UniProtKB/TrEMBL annotation:
Belongs to the RecO family. One of its GO terms (cellular component) is bacterial nucleoid. It comes from the Bacteria. Pfam families: RecO_C (PF02565), RecO_N (PF11967). Residues 4-81 form the DNA replication/recombination mediator RecO N-terminal domain. This is DNA repair protein RecO. InterPro entries: ARFGAP/RecO, DNA_rep/recomb_RecO_N, NA-bd_OB-fold, RecO, RecO_C. GO terms for biological process: DNA recombination; double-strand break repair. Involved in DNA repair and RecF pathway recombination. Keywords: DNA damage, DNA recombination, DNA repair.
Length: 242
């Protein structure tokens, strides 16, 4: 049914369209990811100003007609996350966080937890990019996204047989850690990487565990990427390098 939709939203990405328009991919708390056209936004005197840019958190009024593409009729800024835009690592971290949300949650299914998790991540990056724009932060964020998507890896015991005492590897196909008897095509997962993943899932994002060594981070990232590839049939961009 045609009508206006009022919603908060975070702009995930934008695409130029025609001579003066722009297509927005926006994540909302109660409509999931939506696509909308902002008409005339690229004109010098656009009434939207510079608000319809990636990573802005906005109050939006969208016109919903017969098309899947909504139309932006009003936009008010809640938070532009301005500080992260002046920091290369913060900007890169925001782009990767939004890309991960866009890939994992591409439907219009509502998921308020994902919206608030993304808003929290952007707030942390904006507060202090030097502290939060790290690979450890990105991996903690992605683990929480997997939890929200119902794809959280099994970390409490072997995903194949349930053994809690002798886990030594990780299998994306099995969906979690595995023991020596069930490892099959698993790769080694050190205790440091295992502990980091457990702590990252169990703590609030603002209290994410300190960065472990490079080897542990590489193993944790591989576990996340393999889980997504095997169970969501998607490939995520690599996390930050620092």
């Amino acid at each position: 049914m045609a009508g206006s939709l009022k919603t908060e939203g975070i702009v995930l990405r934008t695409l130029r369209f025609g001579e003066a328009d722009r297509i927005l991919h926006v994540y909302t708390p109660h409509r999931g990811r939506v696509s909308a056209i902002a008409k005339g936004v690229r004109r010098a005197r656009s009434r939207f100003g510079g608000r319809l840019e990636p990573f802005f958190r906005l109050n939006l009024v969208l016109y919903e007609g017969r098309s899947d593409l909504l139309t932006v009729t009003s936009a008010e800024t809640i938070d532009p996350f301005a500080r992260l835009r002046g920091d290369a690592a913060g900007l890169d971290g925001a782009a990767r966080a939004c890309d991960a949300v866009s890939r994992l949650f591409e439907s219009s299914d509502p998921n308020p937890a994902v919206f608030h998790l993304l808003a929290n991540e952007l707030s942390l990056l904006d507060r202090d990019p030097s502290v939060h724009a790290t690979k450890a932060n990105q991996l903690a964020f992605r683990l929480k996204l997997l939890l929200a998507a119902g794809l959280a890896p099994q970390l409490g015991g072997c995903a194949s047989c349930g053994d809690r005492e002798h886990v030594s590897g990780f299998s994306g196909a099995a969906g979690g850690v595995v023991c020596g008897s069930c490892e099959g095509s698993a790769f080694p997962l050190d205790e440091e990487a295992h502990s980091f993943m457990v702590d990252a899932l169990g703590r609030p994002l603002a209290e994410a565990p300190a960065s472990p060594g490079d080897r542990a981070l590489r193993q944790a990232e591989r576990a996340i990427l393999d889980t997504v590839e095997h169970h969501a049939h998607l490939r995520l961009r690599p996390a930050l390098t620092r």
